[in-house]
Amino acid sequence: MMDLVVRDVEVVDGSGGPSYRADVGIEGGRITAVVQEAAAAGCLRPVARRVLDAEGLVLSPGFIDMHAHSDLALLRDPDHSAKVAQGVTLEVIGQDGLSYAPVDDRTLAEVRRAITGWNGNGDDIDFGWRSVGEYLDRLDHGFDGEGIAVNAAYLIPQGSVRMLAVGWDDREATPRELDRMRQLVADGMREGAVGMSSGLTYTPGMYAKDSELTELCRVVAEFGGYYCPHHRSYGAGALDAYREMVELTREAGCSLHLAHATMNFGVNKGRGPELLALVDDALAGGADISLDTYPYTPGCTTLVAMLPSWASEGGPEAILARLKDDETAEKIRHHMEVVGADGCHGVPIEWDTIEISGVADAALAEYVGRTVQESADARGEAPWVTARRLLLDDGLGSTILQHVGHEENVRAIMRHRVHTGGSDGILRGDKPHPRAYGTFPQYLGRYVRELGVLGLEECVAHLTSRPAARLRLPDRGLVREGYRADLVLFDPATVAAGSTFEDPRVLPTGIPYVLIDGRFVVEDGRRTDVLAGRAVRGTAP
């Protein structure tokens, strides 16, 4: 007697192959039976304590969010419907080179300040951990030992590692400091990380030269992990920045996953195929490469990230001191508006594309939902004056939407055979990017059903088995007997993102059931109180 049978369901199994009708049995958190065309064949059907009639629904593996910023949200919000309601059953966190392990007392305070815009300041979190292993144990414990909303895998953040070993200085690491960074990465991989991330337009990670990154990637490769860089430019010089990562990981013998692999800004309009040609050439040469994207054109980050790197040296307090100094602030403005700061990917900033999506100080809410240019016009002042004031008054905590993407590039890249889905979802702020709440139903509803950019079976493979393969998870990502019962049931005729830029926290429609470890976390379209998520640890080869 099984725990559950999903009866008469159309199975899109994650392999990319044709769908088929089946009964799917679940017991003890795993798929124990997949009986195809059970009703039509008249064969013995699986028997269970509960039978779910799934006529009209599609059953697929749970979706894997390859680029998530839920590092604290998983410990703050047991509901976490922003992801659960999308059918996400696993998130990969520790992204963009900045997160909360490994740390010491000094760097924990620094990283909390540096990424307040991503995750809040963490005043509501008990930071009892310091190592990667301790953080993963904390995720396992979750809420009163019951776990967390979804499963989570972790990338060692290279910027946090450099913060520990070198600090915030723009200089090469000494041999001794490099040895310490190697050890920190090795420790994190042994403790369960699946790879390493970088934020090469964020301080202090951006100060690492390729030789330093190559040495750290060699360590990651020894443990069978992958390197996930937010590389040095997504604007001017984007293709060179992608090529740099391909060559670096080739030298290190390390697998590569290109984070939020977009081609943005006016200089890259229509150039998505050039990126894909670069990837194809590397794949043909034997490289192990994958990438992720979100199905929207605007990006999302923090306002302070737009500053030139020299203005960010020394960390948050040093940034604020430079912004307070009129002469230095004028140099910052010149680099941003005239030269093209590396923080804005080498492109002169266009203030009418920078929309404030959230503020740390609620007293500054008037800025939210307006571009910097609009707020400046309303005040009768230059946009840099407005931006500088906001950076200072909000303690660098403001988040932004950057409206610089191109739809043709989005569509071209999502078709590629190594593409996976990643929301890059920042959950904080008064008006977050709708990708945080809508990425996966947006793929299924808009880009499969409405536009036909991807076929259903192909799209599900992008969101399930491909990321599971990148994460080296042997029992996830497919509907197969013996695999974990992390599953989604959705209506292909109605599934859609509810979130919009105007109302970004609306939950999706058409996803009535989500299971993690064989337990319903969404049932009849409602979030249950089940906390079935755990840390998913990497395993060395």
From TrEMBL:
Keywords: Hydrolase
SUPFAM superfamilies: Composite domain of metallo-dependent hydrolases, Metallo-dependent hydrolases
Domain spans labelled Amidohydrolase: 50-522
The protein's Enzyme Commission number: 3.5.1.81
Organism: Streptomyces umbrinus
Main EC class the enzyme belongs to: hydrolase
CDD domains linked to this entry: D-aminoacylase
InterPro entries reported in the protein's UniProt record: Amidohydro_3, D-aminoacylase_insert_dom_sf, Metal-dep_hydrolase_composite, Metal_Hydrolase, Metallo-dep_Hydrolases_sf
Protein name: N-acyl-D-amino-acid deacylase
Single GO MF descriptor: N-acyl-D-amino-acid deacylase activity
Any Pfam family hit: Amidohydro_3
